[in-house]
Amino acid sequence: MRKITLSNGTTVEVECLSCALTGGLIEPEGGVVVETEYFHAHQDVAYPIRGLIILASKRHIKCFDELTEEERMDYINLLSKIRKVQREILDIEYVYYFYNEDTTHHFHTWMVPRYEWMYEFGRSIESVRPVLLHARNNMNSEENKKEVMSAIKALTNELKC
Ligand SMILES: [Zn+2]
Q1: Full-model pTM
Q2: Which of 46, 91, 104, 105 is deepest in the core (most CB within 10 A)?
């Protein structure tokens, strides 16, 4: 069991954070961006980067080869759909994707938009962790949070169509 402190200050104990989120036990701050039969997308606002999305499977699996045929189709279609909307609505030119199987949660893909300011941390894989930490530790201004929340809303609205 893992202890999770929610944004409203209450603490819950969950077996798997991804299960708690995708199953609706925990409501992500900003809400669910889009949801299908097999997948669930939200922004982890602990990393306040405009347009960042975490796409998680609803089933508690860890590895890519555990996806069923239907889940695979749903995954790639939803990933592409979110990517397209990031471009059209938020003008995001490039996205970094990452996903590791030895996670303490379950199957989830990070979609991290690439912004100009990130290049000071380098390029490619080695820049991802420093970028995320920088966002988490230094980008919590009200102004930036507002931008992040409004991006969540814009993506959510567009993905309803
Ligand atoms: Zn799980």
Answers
A1: 0.92
A2: 105
